[in-house]
Amino acid sequence: MTKGKLFVISGPSGAGKGTICKEVLDEERNIRMSVSMTTRMPRKGEIDKVHYHFVDQQSFEQLIEDGGFMEYANVYGNFYGTPKKNVMEWLEQGIDVILEIDVQGALQVKKSYPEGVFIFILPPSIEELKNRIKSRGSETEETMARRLGTALSEISSIDQYDYRVINEELDVAINRVRAIITAEQCKLNDIEVDNIVSRYKEEL
Question: Which one, out of 13, 66, 94, 204, has a CA that is 20 to 30 A from the CA of 86?
């Protein structure tokens, strides 16, 4: 059986990666989204085990000790991580998986799973990014400055990614991510080449 592909989609907070991933999943039924785990409190409208697995810090730290994360990080005082078990099981079953994670986490995954496909979502400008973050209504001047500083640092890591998509017009960005996923799904690996050649030889 051919293994599934791991698509890692990340970018600065406010770049729109969450919205893009949701739309891609609506279209691509053969892809599953890994649900991250976090120690932060749920925001309004967020549902446990749908948007995140919300846990306390003790539970999170226990899973770290057990080697249960593909990646984890402390972001703005809260822990975030990608539980390993489901992701690896899906990939072994030939199911493609999307990770929507921050840049720090994506670079960790790249070290342990370099065969993943890494897609960076960019805002059209820092000013637009600031407006998107401000529209959430949950940022102080201090946290806004910190997020923008982090965004600039994250953008400097873009050379570690396979693709970049600028999210200026949402529909265009969604279609570009879909196109990347479709192209990657059509790529041949050595096992598939051998199987295809063997099958056609048998039909002669």
Answer: 13
Among the residue ranges 109-113, 134-138, 162-166, the one predicted with the least confidence is 134-138
Question: Is 17 labeled as ligand-binding?
Answer: yes
Q: Is 18 a known ligand-binding residue? A: yes
Buried b (16+ CB within 10 A) or exposed e, 82-109: bbbeebbebbeeebbbbbbbbbbbbbbb
**Dihedral sign for Cα atoms in the order 6, 158, 105, 148:** negative
15 annotated among ligand-binding-site residues? yes
Q: Has 173 been labeled as part of a binding site?
A: no
12 annotated binding-site participant? yes
Six-digit token string for 21: 């991933």
In this prediction, residues 16-23 reach a mean pLDDT of 92
Number of residues that this document lists for the chain:
204
Average pLDDT, the chain: 89
Q: Give phi and psi for 163, each to the nearest 5.
A: -140, 155
Half-sphere exposure at residue 58, Cβ-oriented, CA atoms within 13 angstroms:
0
Sort 35 into a burial class: Cβ within 10 Å, 0-12 / 13-18 / 19+. middle
Strands 53-54 and 117-122: unpaired
